[in-house]
Each structure stands twice: as C-alpha cells, then as structure tokens.
Amino acid sequence: MPTISTGIKTLDVLMMNNSEEIIGIINDVIKKNPEVGFFDASPVKKNEYNTLFIDQYPKVGFRDPGEFAKHEVARLGNRTVKCAHLDASWTMDKALATQSDWGKDKALAIQTMTHLESALFTLSQQIWYGVRNETNGFKGLHDLFGQANKDLLMDAGGTGSNLTSVYAVSTGVDAIQLVWGNDGELTEGDVVEQWITNPTDPKNSGAWHYAQDISGWAGLQVTSAHAFGRIKNISDEKSLNDDMLYDFLAQFPAGRKPQAFFLTRKAMNQLRKSRTAVNATGAPAPYPTEVGGVPLIETDAIMDNEETLAE
User: Fold this and answer.
1) Residue 84 has what DSSP assignment?
2) How is residue 281 annotated by DSSP?
3) pLDDT tens digit string along 124-136?
C-alpha cells in the first residue's frame, strides 16, 4: 500500500511558532538541503516518545465457512524517537561587523544565514548517517540498516577509497518523517553584545562580540522497515548504472516502491556515463532525472568517502 503523506513539510512546521525573519532565511537555505524539503515533518510536544514500527505486513486470505483461515499477523514493535538539540547559535566580533561598507545589519544577517544553512546541512547528514555523523545527534537511517530490512541493503561490491551510496526513501506517516520538538518552536534570542574572553589569556584579553542564540530540537521518525533502502559500496570500478538501480527496485515489496533516490553528484554522473555508453549516436546522454518512475535527487549530504565511516 502507498505511504500516507501528511502534506506538511519542515517550513510549514516552523512557520507555526517562529518569526517571519528567521522563516524567510530558512526558506532560502532549505533549497540547498533537498532532504529538508523532501521529507514530511510534524511538530511533537515531547522530545522523546515511542511509536509503532511495522517490521512485517500481515498475510491474510480467503477461507471456506467452518474452516480456519491461514494468515500471519503483522509483526509490530515499538521504536523510541529521540529528538536532539540542534544549535545554530553564533557570535561575531563587533569590529568585524561594523567594518564592512554593507553595514552592521547586513553582516549580522549573513552570519545568521550561514549558521542556519550549516545547521540544516548537518541535519541532512544526520538523516543518512545518524550517530556516525554526530554522536550527540539523533539516530539516522545508517543506524537502522541490518535490523528489519536486510533485503533492502544492496552491496555494489566496490572496495578501496571513494565509496558512496544511493538511498531509496519514502516519506509519510507510515514511512519516514522529520519531527521538530517543542511543537516546532525554535529558540530565537535577541542579538546581544557579549564580552568574549581570549581562551589563551582569559584574565587579560578579550573582545566584544555580537551574539544570538538560535536552536531547536529535531529528530527522525521511521515507522516501516520498507520505508528506506540503500545501495552501498559504489566505487569508480563498480559504478552506478540503470541495471543496478532496477535490480534494487525489484527488492521492494509491491506497492512500496520508494518515492525518491538520493545520491551524490559523482554517482549521478556515473549513471549518466553508463547511459552514454549504450547511446547509439555516441552523444552524451542527458542528465538523469528518474529511474523506473522514481525521481533522482542530488545531495551534498551523502558522502563520496563512506569508507571513513565505521560500519
């Protein structure tokens, strides 16, 4: 059965309880972090809660009157969702902020934008790599492989350095959602002046800075073993191609085809080159946009050197 979309995204959630100024900045930086725009989102009151997880769907059938039906009940479990504190707070030397001909307000706005952009990029990496990205963050999809959805972890067979992955995901109430704690309310402090001491000479040295507290609670809610899959160990020698992606799609149950593939620009170019090789005219193939009706989405949050992760 198809996933059930909430129709609500992160920007919708954050608009409920935050200022127009910070929402305007987030709207701009989301465009550089496609994961944040793709996944459905929900505000949650508690920063830690339990949800059901569908490990296996039920099997039911017909029966004759007076006889017993053969069926298997759904295999469900509880999963704890923990939001983690995402801190985009910043400081900026007052002298630096007032030095530019653009003016202080522009300098502070740029500082806010860069920190929010970095925060959403870190959030995007956490979705894929979880505690292997930041140990103080929430669990991501990389943490969940090998538990319930072993069939949806495909090995391309690449070895050595410069390994990457393609992730196949679906979003919705019965799939994957981003969740924002404290009902989606960010801490958005006033810009204040703060004395920052020199860490190498705290008694005798320091400088006045502008500072602002920007932070919130974010997590990842996964409620189905069939909501995500991964092709790992894609390399220069074992490069991405259409056959690999179609074989991967064949592993998903009928009616649970993923809604998107996320991959790096390098993997996307590998796919394009594989199509060029079979092009009758020899002309470069156009940039890929989908495979089997599933959109391809490029992201910088997936690594091209995953061999550095502790598997």
Assistant:
1) E
2) T
3) 999 999 999 999 9
